[in-house]
Amino acid sequence: MTRFTGKVALVTGAGGGIGAAAVVRLAAEGATVVAAVRRRSGQTPPGAAETIELDVTDEGGWAMAVEQLEARWQRLDVLVNNAGIRESGRCEETSLAQWRRLIDTNLTSVFLGCRAAIPLMRRGGGGAIVNVGSITGIRGTEAMVAYSASKSGVTALTASLALDHAGDNIRVNAIAPAAIRTRMVEGMLEEAPDLALATQRLLSKHPIGRVGTPEEAAGVIAFLASADAGFMTGLTIPVDGGRSIR
C-alpha cells in the first residue's frame, strides 16, 4: 500500500512500542517519517528517515522540531502524538508533582505538539493528527487517577481541535488502546506482587482474551491518518480487544 507516498509524518515516542510500530507502518506505506525520541541512542528507528531528540513537554523543543521539518521538507502531513508515561496511584496517594508530571507528559505535550504543527500543516493544504490516548481515559480504572485524567483530556482535546480545524482541512482523531504488549504494560505487570494473578486479571478484562500488539495499534493509526478515514474527525477509537463493551 502507498497511502502516504509524498507525505511527511512526525511520530513522537518513537523509541519503542506503539510509536516505533507507527514509524514502521507509515514508512512501509510510503511516508517520509521523522521519529522523535526523548534521547537519541545512536540508532535510527527502523523505517525512519530521520531521528530527532524532542522533550514533548518543552515548548521551545516543539518549535525547533517543526522548524527543522519545514526547512528540510517544507511540509508536515501527519502528526502522531504518541509519547506518554504511565504511573499509578489513588487520589490520596498521588502527589502534586506526580499529577503535574502525568498531565504535562500525556496531555500538555499533545497541546504543544498540535499548536506547533498546525500552522505548517495549514500552509501545506491540510493534514491529519492522530493522538494516542488510552482506554483508561474513557473508562474508569482503579488507582490510576492522574493517568486517567491526562488521557481523558486527550479525548476532549481531540474533539475540540477537530472542530476548530475542520475548515483548515486538518482532521484530528485519537486511539484509545487497552493493554498493548509494550514496556509500559510489562512494567505494570512486573510491579504486581503476584505476576500470574495480575496477568490473568488483565487478560480477563479483554473479551478477545489477549493483549494487543503495537502493530495492531499502528494499523489503526495509519488508517486514521490516511485518506481512507477522510470523513472521520474528532473521534477516539478504542483499540481494546472489546474491553470498552464489557
Q: What's the arrangement of secondary structure elements?
A:
Elements lengths: L7 E4 L5 H12 L3 E6 L12 E4 L5 H15 L4 E4 L14 H28 L3 E6 L12 H21 L4 E8 L5 H9 L3 H10 L9 H12 L10 E4 L7
Parallel strand pairs: 1-2, 1-4, 2-3, 4-5, 5-6, 6-7
Structure description:
This protein is an alpha/beta fold and 246 residues long. It folds into two domains: 8-177 and 214-239, 3-Layer(aba) Sandwich (Rossmann fold), CATH 3.40.50; 181-211, no CATH class. The protein is built from seven helices and seven strands. It has helices at residues 17-28, 59-73, 96-123, 145-165, 183-191, 195-204, 214-225, and strands spanning 8-11, 32-37, 50-53, 78-81, 127-132, 170-177, 236-239. A seven-stranded parallel sheet has the order 3-2-1-4-5-6-7, sandwiched between helices. It is globular, with a radius of gyration of 17 Å. The protein starts with 7 loop residues before the first strand and ends in a 7-residue tail after the last strand. The model has no long low-confidence stretch (mean pLDDT 94).
